[in-house]
Amino acid sequence: MGSLDIHIGEILARNARMYPNGVALIERIPSENKRREITWKQFDEGANCFANILLKKGIKKGDKVIHLMMNSIDWLIAYFGIVRTGAWAVPLNFRFMEDDIKYCCGVTEPRCVVFGEEFIDRIGKIKEDLPTVKHYIFVGKETPSYAEPYDRLMEKSTPTPPNIFITYDDPCGLYFTSGTTGQPKPILLTHKNMVCACITENAHHYQTRRDNFILIPPLYHTGAKMHWFGSFIVGGPAVILKGFSPEWILEAVSEERGTIVWLLVPWAQDILLKLDSGEMKLKEYHLSQFRLMHIGAQPVPPSLVKHWKEYFPKMAYDTDYGLSESTGPGCVHLGIENEHKVGAIGLAGFNWETNIMDEEGNPVPQGEVGELVVRGDGVMKEYYKNPEATAKAIRNGWLFTGDMAKQDEDGFIFLVDRKKDLIICGGENVFPVEVEDFLHAHTSVKDVAAIGLPDERLGEVVTVVIDPVPGKTLTEEEVLKFCEKLPKYKRPRKVFFGEVPRNPTGKIEKPKLRKKYIGMEESFKIK
Known about the structure:
The chain is α/β, with parallel strands linked by helices. It folds into 2 domains: 3-400, ANL, N-terminal domain (Rossmann fold); 423-517, GMP Synthetase, Chain A, domain 3. The chain contains 15 helices and 27 strands. Strand 21 and strand 22 form a beta hairpin. The chain is globular and about 70 Å long.
């Protein structure tokens, strides 16, 4: 393997050559009491089989394949099969509804859609509006009439490695994020970006083949998959845990001899609540090998880490900062040796540079607030089909993150505020305009603003300030009932009534709203 053809699919092939009978992936479905595992050889051959299915259908290098499935072993087999053809994998958020999926297909012009049974209705409603899609492959039972069954295709396929030349700089996939308008924005990542994520994550957390990574968050997102990449690059196994509960996590760690778990703040809090109440007892689990818990995707309360260490005093802790444009987490990380700096997002990650700059792109003095910028091999190639946004985000090799930050005297970076109005609720991105537009459809709403207010469990919660139509009444209960049509993570958790301040150009003055409502008693909370 020469330096020009190091790609993410080749790492899988190497693992299969070196550790053919080693366990690669374990899938646990606690709600159904099911468990499945495959070796590196089976993983590699499965990816080859799927790649050959696509190639036989005419999918070629540079084509796009929509990938819409829930976490599973087959998710990863399909993903690696797609990239081995030289096509671009386009993993979509499983919360995307019909309009979102149709928009993403309009941007990417995919030749093929691979989807799971949870998405039958969504795909069925829009398939007539997807003119570029020539093939539908269905992963699950009771295949729709317009699709072909994954299992049957795999049985007939061959595990012969596809003869496709892929270089380090070739595109690998499109990951949709969202801009400040809330419209999904496609980020083009390369094989170089993916390999960077493998190396950075491994350098930070010292994974070896003895580690077993417990993988819980959705695979469509760069965060979870790129953390697992640190184990993937050295042939370490991983457990795909389908579903969340504190008990299921500790059972997976105990029974699979898990060593590393990446959690969201709410999940860590739920574990602690069960331990505090006595509903779970550590002595009932085999946890001596559990060496690292790390958190990302949202601010981490220092009190949470302190509480965690009371139960797990010998366990290492880390937090990572990243974004899809940096191929996920790791461009900044705290480091397991820097627990005394909990509250900071940390220092430049392995093989990364960081800086804090003003609007003109000049470094600001230490201690002053500016925009966090990062530079390294994980910086995306571009925003696909959006050269203006690309030029704004990447300047002189620096990726401008849109996050405002400052450094302390030791060089540790602390986030101050988001330049964008993005709300991060439980690790999920919520764009205020989506909630505002939805509520504007209510006949009793004159004006509305959505902001994120701090929440100890979720990081932030969606909060709305509503100015009702004069002469009409509106209650909190009516607002929350109306918002039940929104995905749960986008629903307001706090509702206030009052004037929505706007500047002379008509823009909502959200800093004023945050200042006014932070610390106020919430008027309503969903349990």
